[in-house]
Amino acid sequence: MPRDIQSVDITPEQFESQVLGWLKASKDGLRCFNVTHRQMLKGDSGEYEIDVMAEFEVLGGALIKVLVECKRHKNPIKRDVIVILESKIRDTDAHKGMVFSTSGFQKGAIKYAQKRGIATITVQHGHTNLFTKAEGSRPVTPPPWVKVPEYIGWFITLNDAGNQSTSLIDDERKDPLIEWFSTHSES
Hints:
The protein contains four helices and seven strands; from the N terminus they run αβββαβαβββα. By secondary structure, the chain is α/β, with parallel strands linked by helices.
């Protein structure tokens, strides 16, 4: 993943549509998997409009709800955004959360999210995944014969040493999302 994340120029509709598509395609092994867009949820403190919500069944019928926020910011997402999502999760009796960002995340936000089981994914233009040695590890314009998705995602976690680790998500690769849903379906 590029070190200097630049906010992606994408409309809110394109952004949410891309996230919706990736999530809908990540249902492998999950029962009764359903993804909805712009869902209104009632909580103890009022109603919330959730950008995307995923639901699936585990353990013979228990319903797991995952709240998904799509954040189009110019600066990396701060811890406060994760805290607010965590509050919405508790208030609506949901179980898990995910934040997709066009501008990356501050390290404190990633650390807090990971402790709370909230996924953090940065969305970037597909060509940012193409690097060459000659360009000094900078994104380059791909040659016309290389198929590059319009958008890619970087599923971000911190390893035991506190260093950032990333896994690629695109229209062909959804394994990080599938794995996250599968490993977080027990909680």
